[in-house]
Fold this protein.
Amino acid sequence: MTSSGTPAVQISGLGKTYPGAGGPALSGVSLTVGRGEIVVLLGLSGSGKSTLLRHINGLEIPSEGGVVSLGEEVSRLTGRALRSLRGRIGFIFQQFELVGPLTVLENVLTGALSTLRGPRIGIWSYPRPLRLKALAHLDRVGLLERAYQRADTLSGGQQQRVAIARALMQDPEILLADEPVASLDPESSSQVMSLIREIAAERDLTVVCSLHQVDLALEWGDRVVGLRAGEVVLDTRTDSLSREQVMEVYGRVATTTGEIRAIEQELADVREELLSEELRKGAALERDPDGEPS
Amino acid sequence: MTALAERVAAVPRPRPRLSTVVSSAVIIAIAVLGVWSFIGLDYSLKSFETTFGNLSRFIGLATPMQWPGFNVIGTRQPDGTTTFVTEWVGFEPIWAMLGLVAITLSLVIAGTALAAVLSIPVAYGAARNTTPHPLVLAVCRGIGVVARAVPDVAFVVFLAFLWFNSGTLPAIVAVGLHSVGMISKMMADAIEQIDEGPRLAIRSAGGSKAQEFWSGVVPQALPAWIAVALHRADINLRASVILGVVGVPGLGYALDDALHAGPAGMRRVVPIVLIIIALCVLFEVVSSTVRSRLLGVQPTGRGIGDGLVRAIGRRSGRSASTVEVAGTGDPRSRIEQALHRPWDRSRIVTTLWIGIGIAVVVGAFLYAAPDLGRLFYGWRFDQVSNPDLDRAVWPPNFGSRDWGDVLAAVTTTVQVAFAATLMGAIISAVVGPLSARNVAPNGVVRNLFRGVALVLRAIPDLVVAIIFIIATGFGPQAGALALGIGGVGLLAKLIGDSMEEVPRGPERALAAAGGSRPQVFFSSTVPMSVPALVSHLMYLLEQNVRSATLLGIVGAGGIGFLLLNALQGRHFDQVLAFLLVIIALVVVVETASILIRRVLK
C-alpha cells in the first residue's frame, strides 16, 4: 500500500535492557526485512526472539537504537498513531491469546478494533460488513461452522487458526508470529505453519516468525536470522544451503551438541508445562471459588 | 548405644516455620480471648436460667401463632386463663403479606443491581492490572473498605433524611452503596486473576485502553461479576430484616412492627420469621440455579441451593451444542448464511435467561418505584452541612458519651464476636471432621453431620440471631449464642471440605501400618489441614465481628447499639463518630485476617 521501496521493518542498533535484569535482552541488533519476505528468527528461549518481535509493533520501548516499521519510527508514536500502526501489523502468539468466554466470531472481530471508535460488546456491536469479513476469514481458516462456539472449547490448533483469522481481520501488511506452534501437536503444527505460508503468499505479506526448531526454520522460512543471548549470530537465506552450512546453522544457534540437546529438552519442558497447566486448570475448575460475603 | 544417643542429641532442630508459629498463635489467641469474652459477657448458670425463662415466656406469648389470613382472639375466662379462637378472615392479609415479600425482594434486587453497576468502575480502579494510577487504586480500594464497613442501616437513615419523603429511594441506594464494598472487591480480585494474554493481543491489534477492558477483561471477569452479584443479593435479603428496624418497608418492618404491638403482635412474630426463613432458602435455591445456568458451570458454593443444583446437574448431563452450517454451496452464500446465528437450543436458553434476568431487575425497580427525581433536587444538604444545626455531620463527636463508654461498647462487640467464634469452633471441631468422607466412620454418620451443617447454613444466621435476641431478652449473651450456632453451619462445612481435600497418601500409609481411624485422624489428617483450618477460623472471626456490629442494632448491645441510638436521634455527628470507630475496628480485623492468611498460604 505504502511505497514499496521502503523496507517493511528496519531495525538499527537495537538494544533492550529490562530494569533489574542481569544483562541486556537485546544488544546491537540491526536487521532489515524487505516487503514480502518470510523471515524466521531462530534461537533458544531467552535468546531475545520475543523481545525483538515486540519491538516491531511497539509493545516494548527500546533502550537504545530504533525500529522503523512500515516507514514509521515506532518509539515516537503514541496514542492513535501507534494504534493505527499496530492495526497494520498482525501478531500471532504462542498461547493464541483468544478471549476464552467470547464466541469465535467475536474473537475474530476484535482484530478490527483499531478501525473502530469506542468499546464493543457483543457481535451485534460490529457493523455488518465487518461481520461478513470475519466470517469469510473464518471460512478461509476452515472454521466457519465453529463461529458461534466459545473460543475456549476449541482445540489448540483450531484456536491458533482463529488467532490467524483475527490477525487477518486487521488487513495486516506485516505478520509477526511468536513461536506460533510451540504449544501444538505435530499435526496441528504443520497445519498452522503451512496456513501462515499460504496466507502470506495470497496477500503478499511480510512475515517475521520466531521458532526454536532448526529443521522447521530451514524448511519453512526464506531467510533465517539466528539469535543468541540477544545478538544476531546468523543471517542467511535458506535456499541453496549446503549440508555443511546447515551444520553451521546448528553450530551458530546452539554452539555445542549439549546445547542442541538443550533445545530438545526445552521442547520437552514446554510440553510438560502445558500438560501440567491443563491439569491445573482442570483442578482449579473443581475447586471452590471462595466467597467473601461481608 | 551412647554413640547413638549422642547422635540423636545432635540432630539439628530447625526453627519452626512462620506459618506453624502463626497457626498455633491464632488458635491459642482465639481460645484465650474466647474464654475472656465468655467471662466478660457474664455467662453463668444464672444468666442461662434467665435466658430459658425469657424463652418460655416468649413462647407463651407467641402461641398460638397467627398466620396471615387468620385472626386469633383471646378471651379471658373467669378462672384467669385465656382461651384462643382462631378464625379465618379472608385473603386480604395474605395478599398484604405477599406484597411485603414483593417489596422486600424488589428493594434487595434493585439495590444489588445498582451495586453491581457501580462496582464496575470501582473494580476497574481497584484492580492492580487495570488501574490507571496508583492513586486511583488507593482511592478505589478505600471506597470499597468504607462501603463494606458502613452498615446499610446507617446509609438508609442518612439518605432518608437527606432526601426527605422520597419513598424507597434511600433504601435502594443504601443497599447499593453498602454492597459496592464486597462486589467491587471480589470483582477486582477476579480482574487481577484474568489471563493477560488476550488483552495483550487486543493491544497488539491496535485496540484502545477502553477496548482492551471491554473486549479483553470484562468477558473474562463477567462470570465472577454475575456470581458475586447473586451471592450478594442473597446476603442482602438476609440483612434486609435489620433495615426494617429503621423503617424500610418489607418483612423486616412487619417483624419490627409485630414485636412492638403487644400480645396480639407477638402472635404474628413466629409466622413472619418462618416466612422470612422460607424466603431466604427459596431465594438461595433460585440464585444458585441462575448462577449455574448463566455461567454454564457446576456451582461449588456451600449453600443448600448449590447442593440442590449440583444434585440435579448430576442427573441430567448437559452437552455442548455446536453450530451447524451447511457445508455445500458457494462460499459467499455459506458466509451469508452463517451471519445469522441459528436459534439452537443453547442460544434460546441463554437468551431466555438473560431476558428473565433483565425482566426481574427492571420489574424490581418498577415495583419499588424509587422517586428518582429526588436524586436531582431537594437535597437537604444545608441541614447536614451547617455545624450550628442539630443535624450537622461535622464535627464528629460522641455526644453525651465519652471514650470510656465507646471503648466499653467496642469491647462488648468484640467479645460477642470472640465468644461466638470460640463457640462455633468448638462445635465445628466435632461436626466438621465427622462430615468429612475420610474421617467419618461410615456414610450414615457423615451424612448426618453434613445434614446438620447444611440445615444450620440454610437458616440465615442473622435472622436466627435476631430471633434469639427477641426471644431471650435483649443482650450480648443471646447475640453471641446465636452467632456461635449460626457460625457452625459455615465453619463445619469449611472444615469438612478442607479435610476431604487433604492428600490421601499419608492417611493410607498410616492405615496400612495398622493405625486406627482416630490415630490416622490425629497423626495425618489434622496436621495436614491445620493451615486451612486456621484460615477458615480467621474468616469466621472476621464475619462475626461484622455480624456482632449489626446485632447491636437489633439489641445485642455494643457499638451497634450506640450507632442505632445516634441514628434514631438523627445525630449525624455522632453517627459519623461511631461509624469511624466501626470502620477502624473492621479495618484492624480485616488487615489482621489478610496478614495471617497470607502467611498461611
About this structure: The longest helix of chain B spans residues 517-556. Strands of chain B lie at 70-76, 82-88. Chain B touches chain A through 57 residues (CB under 8 Å). Residues 125 and 136 of chain B are 6 Å apart (CA to CA).
